[in-house]
Design goal:
This protein is an alpha+beta fold. Helices cover 47% and strands 21% of the residues. The chain is globular and about 55 Å long.
């Protein structure tokens, strides 16, 4: 594979970690895809036939309770992917995945991923290291949801999202934020109002802007720094 062709996949951190030799067999099977806001990539319980590597934007993994409350249990931007564990275990999708922030990236057949995973030791090491980070982040989020206030978690989520999309302007609604934080909409709205009154953010319908990142970091719980380290690896 020519060096400039391999460079085409540098937008995703996992693919960028692979050498030209390691990515050679994957490249013909990596299909460009656009992620439109709200697009559902796969449903809970559906057949896992593909994984996704974002280049920009942000994807969320969602679980729903029997009483109809949706909760984000994972997210990925340019630093990661979605669908990995279910693809490798040949299981149906264990979550619903949707586009939280619009962007683009690549789609890869789960069958191709499994085949390359078994033969490509470099790819295997990169993906196992990433999956370990995902598992640690999930444990960290359980602790965070138990110990920290909605305002702290709100600030943390905004900062992590900003880091993933490299921008201060986020197209997000309070309703969607409630899903991300696993909370009712009313407490999320109150937290947003508190952050705006402090001059840290501003928002209109369907859009939120970070005005004072340093101030937002002071409000966020310590989980932000811990999560940031994991997403940067």
């Amino acid at each position: 594979m020519p060096r400039d062709e391999a460079h085409h996949f540098q937008g995703n951190q996992l693919l960028a970690e692979l050498s030209t030799t390691a990515i050679r067999n994957l490249a013909p099977h990596l299909y460009p895809v656009l992620f439109h806001l709200g697009d559902v990539l796969f449903e809970l319980g559906s057949e896992n036939d593909a994984v996704y590597f974002p280049k920009s934007g942000m994807l969320s993994m969602i679980l729903s309770s029997r009483v109809g409350i949706d909760v984000e249990v994972g997210a990925a931007g340019f630093e990661g992917m979605v669908g990995l564990s279910d693809a490798l275990s040949c299981c149906n999708n264990s979550t619903r995945a949707l586009t939280q922030i619009a962007g683009n990236g690549w789609r890869l057949s789960s069958a191709v991923l499994r085949d390359e995973f078994s033969h490509n030791s470099e790819l295997r090491q990169v993906l196992l290291r990433y999956q370990r980070s995902v598992s640690i982040l999930a444990c960290q989020n359980i602790l965070c949801n138990r110990l920290h206030s909605i305002e702290q978690r709100f600030a943390k989520w905004l900062l992590l999202t900003r880091d993933r999309v490299h921008g201060e302007d986020l197209n997000i609604t309070h309703e969607f934020l409630a899903v991300m934080l696993g909370a009712r909409r009313a407490p999320v709205t109150l937290a947003a109002q508190a952050l705006r009154q402090k001059g840290l953010i501003d928002y209109t319908r369907g859009s939120m802007t970070i005005i004072n990142r340093a101030g937002l970091e002071e409000v966020a719980c310590e989980c932000y720094e811990l999560s940031k380290v994991r997403t940067e690896r």
